[in-house]
Predict the 3D structure of the following.
Amino acid sequence: MSLKPLSLGKANLEEYSATLIELAEKNSNILAVTSDSRGSGKLVSYAEKYPEQIVEVGIAEQNLVGVAAGLASTGKSIFATSPACFLATRSLEQVKNDVAYSNQPVALIGISAGVSYGALGTTHHSLHDIAALRAFHNIDIVVPADNFETREVIKFAAQSDKPIFIKFGKKKMPHLPRLEEKFEIGKASVVCEGTDVAFIACGETVAPAYEAARLLEEKGISSEVISMHTISPLDEATILRVADKCKAIVTIEEHSVHGGLGEACAATLMQNGKAIPFKIMAIPYEDTVAGSQEEIFSHYGISGEGLKDKALELLKL
């Protein structure tokens, strides 16, 4: 199979807004709650079209989550939208108690996640959110890799009866191929199949993994690329399947090396007795590097070339 270059779509946040507008047209119970973030959350058009279906709380993330939980308790379908770096820190107690513990079906939309605010540095990087929220019971965690996964998870969240955290970056996203054009919470999406190395990635790191697969294909090396869009609940069956068929696994995420997708995959492998060359490509435990997202990714080897080289190192080629 020849892997083709990817075509570019919209930013996932733009797809989020477009999908929410479509849903709100048919369902007046859908409400967006924002913390002075309708602009960065691409919700200006939504607010103009449905001014009665948006609540602005100002720069007050704790209030955002509390208000969202209260509205959800009345039967509203709530999309609480705020920068991920603040949503998973300032309002962490409210997420735990008001949303997860209280089982309020709030969709927490973490925008400009990871290092999307790259040049602003540590205060605006969100490299901890998955680690923090994985420790809570009763909340799904989803990191869409393209417009298709974004559209499908927003549609799912609109009718779900439990909490969910959805993490979005800022840049335009490529259209990913996939073996099956379907989306299911807790079931990874196979972008392409292979037998030498498996790249398990989420969100905006799936595209670099696919590019690495294309570069490896030129060398006669077969790569499986997995979009592990759901971090919790984790698709352990897919992790174990690729461990049985491939010779090495590389996980990639826009998150700290601690507590994210990579450690979740490592724990799954270890607890099931799978010994395989394995590497987590993520942001290491060190002083934060500032710069654009592309510059930060490149610095840490989260690029087609960097991931290709890491795969060759693991395969000892």
About this structure: The chain has a mean pLDDT of 96. The chain has two domains: 8-173, 177-315. The chain is about 35% helix and 20% strand. The first helix runs from residue 12 to 26.
